[in-house]
């Protein structure tokens, strides 16, 4: 249910299954964060729209910059990995695999920052701990 919504928000074709495992992991992480922050057992239907929105925000924060670095264009026989226009800068691909964060190494502070972005909506369903 949430996976399709996340794909739509990220403009990923619903038939593309290459990121399903990662997106499913992020959905679980966001659900756990919401439940823990709000001190609830289940996310009400009225606020379940937050899950795909928060997952898309987290994905864009953590993984989008790494995907953009991988966009490569040809310049002669060398592959340009990164290019800048201001003060001209070009970085060539050396053939080494670039490090991309994996779900296990994903920075939880980034998920915390996404949580802060949605605090006003989450506070509507938040329960105090006694």
Write down the Rg.
18 Å
How many strand segments? 3
Q: Decide which structural class fits the backbone.
A: mainly alpha
How much of the sequence lies in strands comes to: 5-15%
Number of helices: 6
Biggest beta sheet attributes = 3 strands, antiparallel
Helix content: 40-55%
User: What would you call the shape?
Assistant: globular
Estimate the mean pLDDT confidence: 80
Ranges with pLDDT <50 over ≥5 residues? 70-76
Strand order of the largest sheet: 1-2-3
- End-to-end C-alpha gap: 33 Å
Instruction: Write down the secondary-structure element order.
Output: HHHHEEEHH
Task: Walk me through the structure.
The protein is mainly alpha-helical and 130 residues long. 47% of the residues lie in helices and 11% in strands. The chain contains 6 helices and 3 strands, in the order H-H-H-H-E-E-E-H-H. It has helices at 2-9, 20-38, 50-62, 64-70, 108-117, 119-122; strands at residues 73-75, 78-84, 89-92. The protein has a 3-stranded antiparallel β-sheet, with no helix packed on it. Helix 1 packs across helix 2 (20-38).
List keywords for this structure.
6 helices; mainly alpha; 47% helix; 3 strands; 130 residues
Question: Concise description?
Answer:
With 130 residues, the chain is mostly helical. Helix content is 47%, strand content 11%. The chain has six helices and three strands.
């Amino acid at each position: 249910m949430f996976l399709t919504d996340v794909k739509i928000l990220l403009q990923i074709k619903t038939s593309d299954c290459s990121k399903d495992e990662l997106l499913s992991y992020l959905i679980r992480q966001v659900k756990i964060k919401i439940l823990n922050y709000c001190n609830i057992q289940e996310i009400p239907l009225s606020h379940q729209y937050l899950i795909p929105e928060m997952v898309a925000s987290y994905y864009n924060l953590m993984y989008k910059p790494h995907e953009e670095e991988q966009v490569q264009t040809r310049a002669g026989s060398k592959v340009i990995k990164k290019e800048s226009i201001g003060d001209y800068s070009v970085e060539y691909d050396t053939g080494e695999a670039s490090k991309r964060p994996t779900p296990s190494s994903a920075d939880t502070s980034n998920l915390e920052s996404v949580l802060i972005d949605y605090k006003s909506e989450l506070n509507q369903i938040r329960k105090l701990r006694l």
